[in-house]
Amino acid sequence: MPPRFATDPAAAIATHVIASDDLESWLSDQPERVRTWVGASGFTGALGQSLTLPGEDGAIAAALIGYGTDARRKRGRFALAQAAPRLPKGSYRIDSGLPEDVAEIEALGWLLSAYRFDRYKDKSPMNAQLIAPGGVDAARIEAIAEGEYLTRDLINTPASDMGPPDLEKAARDLAQEHGADISVITGEALLEANLPMIHTVGRAADRAPRLVDMRWGDAGPTLTLVGKGVCFDTGGLNLKPAASMGLMKKDMGGAAAVLGLAHMLMATGARLRLRVLIPAVENSVSGNAFRPQDVLTSRKGLTVEINNTDAEGRLVLADALALADEEKPDQIISMATLTGAARVAVGPDLAPYFSDDPLFVTALEAAAAGVADPVWRLPFHDPYESMIEPDVADLDNAPKGGFAGTITAALFLRRFVTDSRYAHFDIYGWQPSAAPARAKGGVGQGTRALLEALPGILSR
């Protein structure tokens, strides 16, 4: 079900958000029966606590949600989302205690708490629905939540049902929903279209590789999103061990993220000309799989020595980025679950990104802080360029030594964008354990920050 706010405020339960330090003051204005009930229930206003207050007829008359302390809130995100799943069935109306400057974030967190991946198993829905707080743009928040739900669903679906044809269908469904144009180049036609590295990486799989190309909007600045769509990554002939292969259904997380962001942009009526490019492949093992020491020629004409077939994501992105750059859009952004080095550097909760554009950096980081979608800038460190330059070819897809793996991957991608502003996100796309508003499993990263920042980035 799409995420939605409840719509009948009159029938909703009055709800008070109470910080730990404000509980005594709030209780001082309540009748003795309420003070007694709250005291007996052990409610202290701690973050994530919830309590319903009975009326004289025994029905729920009001609800309390603990807002904790400033120090405790700084250690997490989506304070109300910690309490929402614990509330009884009903709709809830925030009557007091929620600061206006966080109302949109907390309302979004409530909607995201209701996410369930139930394609293969029935799961109980969340019982508590929220009335959108006054002053927020409810339709916009719902559109953002829908985009995040789409991203999560795509990542969570296993490769048996989310191969290149299925990822193409998801893009076609999105295009149809928003009246976008879409075209797809599949299989051997990739060679005719001069997309050789996408073809090479995906040719060993039974399900043919393809490039999905979606366009929307006819006015405004131009934005091209490129998402890595490796629907399953065995590592190819450099086969991954079992422990490393276990989560490889999420290796299309970049594609899932840009489709989620595209939905947010289209559903909110962003004024821009949007293009979405998704190279969708499976990196499989077969007699015609590409090999270590092969040298590939890219769309851009740069040659690439293959020193590890498990560094395939940058190969398919490279052809798509070169294609994107040929139109010289105002901004190109790539998103990919690209390197384990990024996880080692910043863990699963931060979205590392690369940009040398001061305006992009300033706008993104201000937006990220404001919408509780954390990002962390890593450098396009030019002195490391020599690390991706082998003797045999122009570029090396897997430099030896193990140092700066996420930076060398970003430098590799930057070689394919020469005429456009470029930013790259090396996301994880996975929530290792459940957290408020983020169920265990697939998750969007950086997309809400980009949605907020893009108007400023593209307005120059």
From TrEMBL:
The keyword Lipid biosynthesis does not apply. It comes from Sulfitobacter albidus. Residues 308-315 form the Cytosol aminopeptidase domain. Keywords: Aminopeptidase, Hydrolase, Manganese, Protease. InterPro entries: Leucine_aapep/pepB, Macro_dom-like, Peptidase_M17_C, Peptidase_M17_N_1. Belongs to the peptidase M17 family. This is Leucyl aminopeptidase family protein. PANTHER family: LEUCINE AMINOPEPTIDASE-RELATED, PEPTIDASE B. The keyword Membrane does not apply. GO terms for molecular function: manganese ion binding; metalloaminopeptidase activity. One of its GO terms (biological process) is proteolysis. CDD domains: Peptidase_M17. GO terms for cellular component: cytoplasm. Transmembrane segments: none annotated.
